[in-house]
Amino acid sequence: MAWNAPLVIVFFSIPVIVGFGNGIGAPGMFLVAGATIGLFAVGFTRMTKILPKPGAFYAYITAGLGKRIGLGAGLVTLVGYFCGYAGTFAFGGIAANLFFHGTLGLPELPWYVWGAIIWAIIAVLGYLKFSISATIMAIFLGLELLMIVIYNIAVFAQRGAAGAISVEPLLPANWLGGSVAIGLLFALGMFGGFEITALFRSEVKNPSRTVPVATFMVVGVATVLYVVTSWAFINAAGVDRVVDDAAAEPTASMTATFLAFGGRVLVDFASAMVLTSTFAVILAGHNIVSRYLFNLGADRILPRALSRVHPIQGSPHRASMTASVAAFALNIVFVIIGVDPSASYAMMLGMTSLVLIVVMFITNIAIGVYLHRYGRREFSFWARVVSPAISGIVLAIGVFLAVTHFNELTGGSAVVSDALMVVLALVFIGGFALAWVYRTRRPDVYELIGRQ
Predict the structure, then answer these.
(1) CA distances in angstroms from 438 to 305, 394, 428, listed in the order given
(2) For the whole model, what pTM was predicted?
(3) CB 432 within 8 A of CB 69
(4) Vertex 102, ends 241 and 349: CA angle to 5°?
(5) To 5 degrees, how large is the angle CA 23–CA 27–CA 32?
(6) Do 218 and 1 touch, CB atoms closer than 8 A?
């Protein structure tokens, strides 16, 4: 849930979906996206019971579609999560200035100074045992969820801008207004992160129970949160003018409703919570990347040293240090060549969004194939066929939209967007080819691909 960054989504994504997506039908689009991910999670959680090792998407694609496709998809997933983790340091620097300079009146510092401070703290926490990171993320997540709940209660208690809560945003007739494609694409992108439940299965006490429960809780809570908050925002700004306001100034329009219904205190606290929410995103991303490096190291795809566990902390400390060094190096490059922090953040986040939607679609196919082959007796027709089929249709639409609107996801030019897609394609091809090499020259390593 921390990877989802709910408060960041509230301030920076919900207004965009309303302003540039399907307008006042945004709550309905969140409902459609949440239902799609929920259906996907039916098969996903069944796989967590069958495959005991913590490989998640990487493991499930390998199990259903073979080791070559699995390794290619696993490396692409690693790149996608790394982009989200490393790219968010720029936004962290912006959020820090927004709070310390804009709210507290302290001197403004370059984004990379704040980014370096956040990086150092994250590097230390990632090295330590995971329970410390989990506690910090839980505290920050709890505070930002409380902030969102207070905002929603304030709007509904004061009956919105019109003095009466409109149910128009909840009517299916309004879900197809505006740009449905942009609305669906962004709404699907707001549900990333639930895969992490399976990625950490070796670090929880009862994974067979905990992973499915945590997965459905993340999807359920996120769906309710985004539906209710987007509905509240539309009523707070006014049904008749919210689309124009959100399109003109997305973040400012949400801030204005926080100020109108919660006062300056709520706005100032929200500013602080945006910073802590961003910190939690980076911390979650660091731990995700570390576990992917650990899994690939354990399978000997990457150097085996990455799979070593700290004797005291119980953490994948070498994988953690590798993730920290790589993120630092990427951001140093951005600073040296003078990339605007907002541009680098949009570019990296666009990469993550594209990767997760595509990999989720591939995983959905793999799960359907695997359960159809090996789960006929254990799992129902609903889990094996119906759920993957329905979610697959919507995810296929999402993949098409993500590819055709990729330059809008990255916020860059068509040339930059095409170059980034070429990079992802080359990573997949490289993983596919590497698996083929291992099959012919290192069959012992080939057998380990996919956490099998």
Answers:
(1) 19, 35, 15
(2) 0.89
(3) yes
(4) 65
(5) 110
(6) yes
Beta carbons within 8 Å of 373's beta carbon, 6+ residues apart:
none
Kindly report, residue by residue over 13-27, the tens digit of the pLDDT: 899 999 988 899 999
Enumerate domains of the chain plus CATH numbers: 6-446 (1.20.1740.10)
| Cα Rg, the chain, nearest whole Å | 21
Q: pLDDT tens for residues 239-295?
A: 999 999 999 998 899 999 999 999 999 998 988 999 999 999 999 999 999 988 998
- At 54 the pLDDT is 67
Long-range contacts of 438-447 (CB under 8 A, 24+ apart): 439/67, 439/68, 445/299, 445/300, 445/301, 446/67
- Residue for token pair 């070593």: 308
Residue 70, token pair as written in the block: 């699995």
Q: Which of 125, 172, 407 is nearest to 284 (CA)?
A: 125
- What pLDDT is recorded for position 173? 87
Q: Report d(CA 339, CA 20) in Å as an integer.
A: 26
Q: Which residue type, as a one-letter code, is found at position 129?
A: K
What are the structure tokens assigned to 431, written together?
């993983």
Q: What ranges in 190-315 are assigned the alpha helix state H?
A: 196-199, 207-237, 242-248, 250-298
- C-alpha dihedral (70, 286, 195, 433), degrees to nearest 10: -10
Backbone angle region of 276, left / alpha / beta, with phi > 0 → left and psi within -120 to 50 → alpha:
alpha
Residue 6 class from Cβ within 10 Å (0-12 exposed, 13-18 middle, 19+ buried)? buried
The helix (H) or strand (E) run that includes residue 430 is: helix 414-441
307 and 319 in contact (C-beta within 8 Å)? yes
Distance between CA atoms of 53 and 449, rounded to whole angstroms? 12
> Distance between CA 329 and CA 327 in Å, rounded?
5
Are 129 and 314 a contacting pair, CB within 8 Å?
yes
